[in-house]
Backbone:
């Protein structure tokens, strides 16, 4: 899952970026409104974490412009402004969630997961597919009741495929959602991770869930 | 009185009562004067009228008496009866003669008269035998009752005639009174006859009709040899010998008195009526004035209440409007132009004050948001850093890095808290100066040295211009804070490769510090606000963390505390100059 973090306080950005990346999020960072606006419009993010008081254009007006221009990305406002008016204003401008500083990282992560679920019209945090269970909250995976250990990136890839099950997703789509702007890998790395995942999910189980569509991409097997 | 309404009403009514009282009193007084003058005039006129009527009555009476007397004068005649001497009236003569003939006191004159011959005898006879006579039936009567009219005729020879109405009484007239009257003269007086007051006229006239009667001798007595002859000629021509008479007519004053009494009674009645009329007029006037006064007063109470209500209506509207002002909406919810002219300055001033309040509130709100932002963001960063670090085991180097980050965040928060506390102390007035002798040149150099690394990091040229030592009695810590803050700003807002100059110069009884930069400058509309706390020219500028718009507010607070002045001159795009003037002590 790829997240854009627009925040001008560098120590916070550093800590947050580390925390999110360790949770398997690909994190892009913008330190002011101008850059944030540009990035939000050019890349496909699952969630934008947006501060309100920013240099070069504050968060509220950015959000307003985005919604006016039809940008559908989920936006979570993360701000020190805790007054009711600010919350109401933020949500009314089109924010999907509002979190005030200081905050618990766990809460932020849970809200991000909730936003992602909402983006895929999923209420249940546990994704079920044949005998595969993916608990997006606990970040655990079981196949036929057997727990399977996945790295954060493998988990992110599986989750992405699971949210798009029955649909073919291209390599670059996967790559875009799993890697941030600073990763100097190419989309070939996707093939590597798909192989890792196949080894953990499909090996020894039937039917195989990860399918390859040559020339198009990959797909998680849809409904029976 | 606390209530405008009440005091207006009370003063209005007091004023009205005073005015009404004065007008009524004046009207009453004027009318009373007129009524009194009219009453006095009428009174005098009545008195004069009645006096005139009285006088006319008397005059009429006197005229009647005079007419009667004159008539009587024409009617009176004497009749001389020889040998019939009158005795009574000659009584004094008889007394005189008593000495000569003790038994014949009357006889002596008679004897003398009879015995004498010639003119004397004649005269004596005439005097003794002549009686005055009046034809009573010819008397003119004016009164209804003849018994109230009295007539009396006296002659100088002692003859007397009186009307029967006099009875035994007589109208008094002595010889002196007789003699005092001149012939054809008359005199009125009031006398008493038989205990009754009468009005009398005395008219002295000569007797015109004179008759001589020869009586036959009474029986048995030898007749007189002959009557004395008038000396020298006929009886008819014997004149000069006729006596003067005094006619007295008198009339009872009782009827006149009764009439006068009646007249007086009527006069007094009319006078009393006049007094009563005057009094009634005044009472009616007083009642009417009182009624008008009360009516006016009542009308004024009602009208006054209405007037005050109407007059105070704009105030009430203003009050309603003011009561609708809240911390959420500072605008007066109506247009001040609809108010009367007198209230407009209040509304304008109020609107200005409310606008200032609104701005202050907004600023405070902004300040609270700023403080929360400035504090919460580093706290969030601190907590997140720690939380991330603790999520899984890290290497020693990673932990050290986390600790360094946390230290930096703690220092940033500490600085911010220090600044907030400084401002709070300035607000509370507990920050006091600790003056001592300070060499401003040295201090400026120290401050410049402190910020020089920062300036060098941004490739700025930092110059200090302070040619000679300047000593000042001031608080060195605060002065250092002022200079450092201004230098920090000058560096922070400068353009790359720019200049910062600190100029210290003595001036009249004090020192003048100038910090010049070649930075972005400050817009004219922002210059008025830069010393307000949390004011930032660009609210979303970068690097806000360190100062948060508090630096200049602290500088201004310190300069004020030291009794100095601070001003800024700036041209956008060229740079700014902050000028601080401090007094010597």
Residues:
């Amino acid at each position: 899952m790829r997240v854009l973090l627009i925040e001008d306080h560098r120590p916070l950005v550093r800590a947050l970026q580390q925390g999110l990346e360790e949770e398997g999020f690909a994190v892009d960072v913008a330190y002011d409104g101008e850059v944030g606006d540009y990035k939000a419009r050019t890349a496909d993010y699952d969630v934008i974490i947006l501060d309100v008081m920013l240099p070069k254009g504050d968060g509220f007006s950015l959000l307003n412009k985005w919604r006016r221009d039809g940008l559908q990305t989920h936006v979570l406002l993360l701000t020190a402004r805790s007054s009711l008016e600010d919350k109401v204003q933020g949500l009314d401008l089109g924010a999907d969630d509002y979190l005030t500083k200081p905050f618990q990282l766990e809460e932020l992560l849970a809200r991000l997961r909730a936003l992602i679920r909402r983006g895929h019209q999923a209420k249940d945090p546990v994704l079920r597919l044949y005998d595969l269970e993916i608990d997006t909250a606990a970040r655990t995976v079981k196949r036929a009741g057997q727990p399977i250990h996945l790295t954060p990136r493998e988990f992110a890839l599986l989750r992405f495929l699971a949210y798009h099950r029955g649909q073919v997703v291209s390599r670059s789509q996967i790559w875009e959602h799993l890697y941030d702007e600073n990763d100097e890998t190419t989309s070939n790395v996707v093939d590597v991770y798909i192989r890792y995942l196949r080894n953990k999910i499909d090996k020894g189980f039937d039917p195989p869930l990860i399918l390859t569509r040559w020339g198009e991409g990959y797909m998680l097997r849809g409904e029976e | 009185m606390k209530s405008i309404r009440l005091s207006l009403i009370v003063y209005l009514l007091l004023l009205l009562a005073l005015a009404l009282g004065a007008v009524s009193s004046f009207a009453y007084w004027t009318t009373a004067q007129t009524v009194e003058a009219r009453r006095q005039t009428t009174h005098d006129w009545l008195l004069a009228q009645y006096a005139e009527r009285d006088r006319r009555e008397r005059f009429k009476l006197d005229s009647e008496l005079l007419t009667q007397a004159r008539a009587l004068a024409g009617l009176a005649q004497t009749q001389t009866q020889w040998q019939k001497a009158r005795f009574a009236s000659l009584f004094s003569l008889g007394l005189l003669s008593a000495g000569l003939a003790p038994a014949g006191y009357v006889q002596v004159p008679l004897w003398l008269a009879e015995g004498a011959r010639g003119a004397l005898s004649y005269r004596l006879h005439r005097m003794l035998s002549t009686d005055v006579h009046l034809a009573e039936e010819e008397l003119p009567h004016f009164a209804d009752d003849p018994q109230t009219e009295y007539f009396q005729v006296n002659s100088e020879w002692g003859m007397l005639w009186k009307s029967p109405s006099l009875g035994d009484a007589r109208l008094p007239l002595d010889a002196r009174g007789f003699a005092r009257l001149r012939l054809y003269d008359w005199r009125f007086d009031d006398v008493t006859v038989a205990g009754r007051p009468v009005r009398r006229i005395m008219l002295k006239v000569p007797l015109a009709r004179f008759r001589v009667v020869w009586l036959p001798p009474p029986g048995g007595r030898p007749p007189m040899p002959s009557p004395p002859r008038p000396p020298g000629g006929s009886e008819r021509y014997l004149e000069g010998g006729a006596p003067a008479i005094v006619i007295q007519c008198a009339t009872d004053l009782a009827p006149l008195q009764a009439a006068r009494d009646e007249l007086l009674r009527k006069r007094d009645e009319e006078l009393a009526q006049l007094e009563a009329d005057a009094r009634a007029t005044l009472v009616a006037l007083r009642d009417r004035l009182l009624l008008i006064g009360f009516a006016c007063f009542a009308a004024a109470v009602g009208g006054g209440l209405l007037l005050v209500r109407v007059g105070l209506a704009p105030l009430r509207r203003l009050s309603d409007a003011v009561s609708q002002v809240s911390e959420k909406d500072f605008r007066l919810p109506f247009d001040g132009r609809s108010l009367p002219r007198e209230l407009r300055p209040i509304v304008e001033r109020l609107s200005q004050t409310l606008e200032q309040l609104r701005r202050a509130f907004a600023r405070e709100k902004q300040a609270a948001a700023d403080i929360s932002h400035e504090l919460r963001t580093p706290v969030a960063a601190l907590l997140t850093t720690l939380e991330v670090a603790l999520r899984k085991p890290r290497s020693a180097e990673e932990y050290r890095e986390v600790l360094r980050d946390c230290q930096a965040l703690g220092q940033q928060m500490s600085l911010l808290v220090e600044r907030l506390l400084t401002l709070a102390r300035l607000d509370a007035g507990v920050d006091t100066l600790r003056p001592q002798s300070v060499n401003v040149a040295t201090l400026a150099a120290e401050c410049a040295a402190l910020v020089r690394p920062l300036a060098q990091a941004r490739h700025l040229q930092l110059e200090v211009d302070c040619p000679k030592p300047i000593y000042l009695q001031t608080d060195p810590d605060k002065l250092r804070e002022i200079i450092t803050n201004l230098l920090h700003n000058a560096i922070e807002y400068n353009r790359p490769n720019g200049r910062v100059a600190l100029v210290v110069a003595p001036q009249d009884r004090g020192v003048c510090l100038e910090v010049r930069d070649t930075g972005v400058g400050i817009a004219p509309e922002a210059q008025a606000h830069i010393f307000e706390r949390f004011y930032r020219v660009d609210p979303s500028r970068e690097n806000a963390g360190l100062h948060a718009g508090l630096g200049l507010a602290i500088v201004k607070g310190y300069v004020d505390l030291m009794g100095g002045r601070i001003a800024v001159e700036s041209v956008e795009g060229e740079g700014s100059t902050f000028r601080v003037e401090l007094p010597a002590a």
Q: What stands out?
A: Chain B touches chain A through 27 residues (CB under 8 Å). The first strand of chain B starts at residue 77 and ends at 81. The two ends of chain B are 51 Å apart (CA to CA).
